[in-house]
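ugh ok so i messed up the first submission bc i forgot one of the chains. this is the corrected input, ALL of the components this time, i swear. 1218 residues overall. if the numbers dont match what u have on ur side tell me asap before i send this to the collaborators (the ones from the other lab, u know who)
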Amino acid sequence: MWRYALRRLLFLPLIVVLVAVFTFVLLRVLPGQDPARVMAGQGATPDQIKEIHRQLGLDYPVFPVSLRGEPPFVQLNRHDQFSKWLGAALRGDFGVTYQSQAPVRQEFARRFPASFELILLALIIGSVFGISFGILSALYRNSVLDYVVRVFAVFGASVPEFFLLTLLIILPSYLFNYAPPIGGYHSLLREPMLNLRQFGPPALILGIGGSAALMRLVRTTMLEVLRADYIRTAQAKGLSRPTIVLTHAFRNAATPIVTALGTAFLAVFGGSVIAETIMSIQGVGAFFFISTLSRDLPVIQFLAVYTAVVVVLANLIIDLSYALIDRRVRYS
Amino acid sequence: MATATSRQLPVAVDAGWETLPERPWYVRWRRIAAQNPLGVVALLIVVGFFVLGLVGPYVAPYPPRQLDAAAQFLGPSWAHPFGTNETGNDMFSRVLVGARVSMTFGAIVIVFGFVPGALLGVLSGYAGRWIDYVLQRSSEAWSAFPQVILVLTFLTAFGPGLRNIEIVTAIGAVFGSSRVLRAVAIIEKQKDYVLAAHATGASDARIFARHVLPNVMPYIIVGISGVFAAAVVIEATLSFLGLGLAVGTPGWGIDLNAAIRSGYGQQYPFLVLFPGLAISLVVLGFNLLGDTLRDILDPRLRGSR
Amino acid sequence: MADNEFGLRYWQDGRVSRRRLLGGAAIGGVSLAAIGLVGCTRGASSNKTPGTSATPNGLIAATPTDGTQDGKPTRLGGILRVQQNPAWPNMDPFGPGVLTLVQGLALGFTVFDHMWYVPTDTGVAELFLATKLEQPDALTLTATLGDAVFHNKPPVNGRKVLASDVEASFKRFREETGIGYDWLHNVMDDITSDDQAQTVTIKQKMPWAWVLTSSNAGSPITSSILPKEILHGYDDLLRKDAIGSGHWTLLSHDNGANPKLRKFDKFRQFAGTKSIAGQPYLDGIDFTLVTDPNAALAAFKAGDLDTIGFGTKADAERTARDLGNKVVVGSDLGRDFFTMMLMYEPPFKDDRVRHAFNLLIDRKEAIQVLEQGSGVPCGPMPPAQRRYVLPDSDPALQEYFKTDVKQAKQLLGAAGFDLNQSYEMKFSNRPGDSALANLLASQFARGGIKLKLTQQDLITWLTTTLSQSQFKLTCFGQLPYEDPDLPLRFYIGKQGYGTNFMKYDDPKVDDAILAAATELNEEARIQKVMDAQRAVIKAWSPMLNIYSPIGYGGRYAYVKGTISGRGSLGLFNRTTWLDKA
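and heres the new structure output, hopefully the right one now
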């Protein structure tokens, strides 16, 4: 299994390079908005734009190989943007942002804790909520609880997150004159109350929004498992109900649940972009959003690679946990 | 979701669609409807919004952009059930007319994204080989990434605007629908009746049109429901973030955006509430419809995703 | 932090921009609140008047106060807590580009010193570092500097401020471009200095009467004095820290967020010839980055901020009601104004067409709809320029403010204006701009004119549509320009004098505006500015101004010694003190 994990990890650099190539094509080859225009601002002359291009290195060819309209149709470029970026990236240098002129890595590191906490909190809330109510709903099938859970699962999946987040901004302010604490990121360790006031509500919305799907899945899976023969056997053996549910049933239901958790993670990860933007949280997601608006290419490139790494690792963890949960699964 | 009826669900339905064509269609549907009251409600919601998308501008009590400084910020009343905004526009009319934006967007994504994707998926599942491989790998890559991040990256390259959002969402729908339909097609391909038809010497095209497609149809509808709902949310979200429609255009996402960004939403929450509820209701309709169909197709998965 | 910063953030910018941005910390006389959008928003620091409670139509800006109205401070020290929004991208006052305005202004009012500043109420330069200002002839300006030292940070280490620092700083700013840099490029011929005599001499290419004002040699950004040794080759230092000789030193900041300013102990004890011993009275100012206006309001109400800029009049009134006489809530007419531009090309080249468009604009309705009545109609000169604006009773201005659909239709008919076609109006997605575009479309529709509304993202609109004159029609909110010079310069067609986006070129209008700009006699200049406004109206020049909004701000009553009604002069405030333990 560890060999398998290692092999998957060996693919990571390849995927990173592919994603980088893709973003380069998307952002630099295709005729899009010129970031130099954004930076130069009002009334910039073509010469100034050119100068900014030169400073940013945007005047070089994008890739080491470029196409030409005449034979031999391809041409090799001695200096190009991609190799330069890749070379620096291998040394851990992702350039400086266009906007603040600070190293991308440093800007990222500063925002990472907020995003990490938001995503983690949302994931914990979502999975606790989703799994526990899913199990309860399956156990007490067709009870009031089951009914409530199922209605919630459908409605919860239907109300868009951005709408809930918007309500979260306006309703407390309208009803109670309440607003989240000010002053940027409050550390969980040093200022736990402020931190929770800041992250609790958006995490709750992100998490519960994601839990709707999870809840339904847990419920169905549990229902199926509970019907299975080995549960009946266990019951016949006279094992207590909690033991059956937690050891036998849940263990067997765990594989699809892990898959669903993986999906939920990606949903929360993407959702954090919107949540951070709406809730004015200075995290990686909001950083991504603002950078797309200002066409801050170094940031977008770095964050695309970061996203790829997160996605690949998340999938790997999911695959590995199948093997941990269910010994019948073997990777080679 | 047929909540209360799950226990007495007849086995006949469980046996699949093949057994059903023997009865007249209306008998079949009446039965299904009776067993799935929520599904009927969902269908009514969805159809209702489609109708609204068509006739909204004609049934709206006021012109949605009519400037009326005297009617500023009126709370909900009989004259203005959803209140009025800062320009004195009747919000009820705006929500009715706004249905056109969302429903058109969804329809465009279905036509230019889902349908080609579905055909591609069926083809790839049916034909296999390299088409299948390429399609599978690209759609895996696409769906591995969080959609918001993908869409935003694309919009950075192409610039904001409704047209570009349509394109990106449609690309996503191509991958989404091809994946689902491919799986369905592979299953169908191996079913007995296809093999039997092959044995009788029927051509591939004929088998596809006469046998495979009808069987795949319900899955297509389930898929459409899901993609449509997702498309409505994407348009609303991006318009809300200021990347889609222009302010002033009657649309749910952009009306929410206007209410929040101007700060009026904080003072007059009804400006936020009604467009948001409209979005939620459409999405709910499609979700419920998809669920119901899924239940009918595969009762074993009742209530699951 | 790079997210909220330069107002590129549509989202944030939007939610904040409806006057909330302005406010920020205004009342404390330290509003670095903000620039909504760099280049062309309402935005920069507008000064709120701590007068009585909000006047219904607050047409009149409150009586200027200079910080002495609260008497001698009975308590020294203390830290003033104000809102920061947006964060400063970095500390470099030289750019790049669109970013400069945020930190350039913020630091210009605090950390960097200047030779003088011209407040809006008097129009007369108040001396800062300069102890003497002479204009031996119309082209020459000589300033004699008093003794001052820089902040004690390496590599400058608290050395004396030299005349050559001023020269080097001006020249360094001239390497940049942007709004407010026109004078450096087009009017200033040369700047020289003499470190022995501590004199700085500015030579101009032409007599320019506005030379001392804030969009010229007295700009809060480009007249900032920096130590000459760090102007080149210290990019990293400039981005991270600010070294000046102003009354505040930059103590710390979290990558542009939550900056803390502290009293500069060795700050010059004079302003021109006056003594300002003991100033600033406060120990410092702490900024807290708050991008959500509700959060800011809640923080103010909870006592976590000492001052606030309100988003709406309703917020101001509610706060005044809730907190009673614990707070002082006031209003002030903004120097910013909303405007629309028509490209000076057929069919808008015809005066009658532009006149007709103006007749269709209902300014009262616009103020009601867009500002809930909190605004004042704006002619060619923003009404906040009280010394220079045409009186409301002036026939020309009355003609400008007239709304008459019938006459407009007649004029359009006479001009042969094609009503079957629709005309494209481009505007940015800032909420103020898009709301205005929608409103104008409705008003023009009354005259049978069809507009095609095209919303663009802010950057595209600013850098392409506006700057490169790629529009037929456009509308937006202008920045709050401090002096009467810039608002008129938009009309000048002559190369090198103005920022004319409309390709407008009317020699009569040019002459009228330049006559005012080159008139050195104050009284005569005021008359010529008024004549220029009449000329603009008479020609129906293609920038049709619509209205100026009224801003609302508040401060706790214990915040004393604030300066108000004097334009951005209040932002240099050194006299604020806190009357609380």
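quick check: DSSP finds twelve helices and no strands in chain B. that seems consistent at least. Residues 1-20, 300-305 of chain B have pLDDT under 50 and may be disordered.
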